[in-house]
Design goal:
The protein is mostly helical. The chain folds into 3 domains: 4-82, Multidrug-efflux Transporter Regulator, Chain: A, Domain 2, CATH 1.10.1660; 83-130; 133-315, no CATH class. The protein is 67% helix and 3% strand. It has helices at residues 14-21, 25-33, 52-66, 71-78, 84-115, 119-129, 133-148, 155-163, 174-188, 190-208, 221-233, 241-255, 263-276, 279-292, 301-315, and strands spanning 4-5, 10-11, 41-42, 48-49. A two-stranded antiparallel ribbon has the order 1-2. A two-stranded antiparallel ribbon has the order 3-4. Helix 11 (221-233) packs antiparallel against helix 12 (241-255), helix 11 crosses helix 15 and helix 13 (263-276) runs antiparallel to helix 15 (301-315). The longest helix is centred in the first third of the chain and has 32 residues, at 84-115. The radius of gyration is 34 Å and the shape is rod-shaped. Residues 11-80 form the HTH merR-type domain. This is MerR family transcriptional regulator. Keywords: DNA-binding. It holds the Pfam family MerR_1. One of its GO terms (molecular function) is DNA-binding transcription factor activity.
Length: 316
């Protein structure tokens, strides 16, 4: 139907509005029925007609809808009950939350695709990804409380352990979300919990034997790992003189009042060191670093294996 001209201004039919705006006739009719686009006039046959102002109003409705505002919000804006700026601010907040949830879903789906997860695991992963900051902190507090329950541990040492909490930023990356899912699964894994509990029990037993187990009295592992890596790079064997010397340093640093040459003592230290060097214990801190945006923690697994063999060489 063509444009209808009145004595003062042109009038447009719904079909003409559709051609000019690219909106379906059905959509324009719906907006008109809902009161968002009142007709300017009607023909003698009752067909709705719209003027240039109505067309501009329709373009605004189209824009607001494309930005995701609901019909009630559009109606409020058109009625002057709320400014477009205010509605936009509210909608930005809603979109931010929607984006956050979509990122969570994407991370879960990416992890599902990577692992080939079954339905029950998918449910668990989605639950973990959706946890709040408070729930994440509580999970770690409960984990460490169970690890030391009923044991005589050095409080400063374990306070350090439990103080490192996973703190996802407001806009976490996919890598951080995936790291959190893996971290949460790790601290709930029965085998990992058993490993950390055994380490805590050995820590407690060492204190009962008179070892302080204070952080300040422990070996400088950073320096030891650096030197072990240098020895590895140089092709030195763990039972070389250099390897045995490093092992002796490690034993002497932990001895306190005990005889560092005692075989029983050395076996106890070796067992503690081997458990502490478990790849899962290292992974715990690597995942925390990713989640919290800390500098990456490189693996020390080769250095740990080399030192373990060096320590064994001094005992066998």
């Amino acid at each position: 139907m063509p444009v209808v001209h009145s004595a003062t201004a042109p009038r447009f039919t719904i079909g003409e509005l559709a051609r000019r705006t690219g909106l379906p006739v059905k959509t324009i009719r719906f907006y008109s029925d809902e009161g968002l686009l009142p007709p300017t006039d009607r023909t003698h046959a009752g067909y709705r007609l719209y003027d240039a102002q109505a067309m501009a109003r329709l373009e605004l409705v189209k824009t607001l809808r494309e930005l995701g505002l609901g019909l009630p919000e559009v109606e409020r804006a058109l009625a002057g009950q709320a400014s477009v700026a205010d509605l936009a601010a509210v909608h930005v907040d809603a979109l931010d939350e929607q984006i956050r949830r979509l990122r969570l879903r994407r991370s879960v789906l990416r992890a599902v695709a990577k692992r080939g997860s079954e339905l029950e695991e998918v449910k668990l992963m989605n639950k973990l990804a959706s946890m709040s900051d408070e729930e994440r902190r509580r999970l770690i507090d409960e984990f460490w409380a169970e690890m030391v329950e009923g044991l005589d541990v050095h409080q400063e040492f374990y306070d350090r352990m439990r103080s490192a909490k996973p703190e996802l930023p407001e806009d976490p990356s996919a890598e951080q979300l995936e790291a959190w899912i893996e971290f949460a699964e790790l601290v709930q894994d029965p085998d990992f919990r058993a490993l950390i509990r055994r380490m805590s029990e050995q820590h407690s037993a060492a204190r009962e034997r008179g070892e302080s187990m204070a952080p300040a009295d422990q070996p400088d592992y950073t320096t030891l790992f650096t030197r072990a890596n240098e020895a590895l790079a140089a092709g030195l064997a763990p039972d070389s003189p250099e390897g045995r010397a490093l092992a002796d340093e490690l034993f002497n640093a932990s001895a306190g009042e005990r005889d560092a040459s005692d075989v029983l003592y050395r076996r106890e230290v070796l067992e503690r060191f081997a458990q502490g060097g478990d790849p899962r214990a290292e992974r715990y801190w690597q995942l925390l670093a990713i989640i919290n945006g800390w500098p990456p923690i490189p693996t020390q697994a080769p250095a740990v294996r080399w030192l373990i063999e060096a320590m064994r060489a001094t005992i066998d």
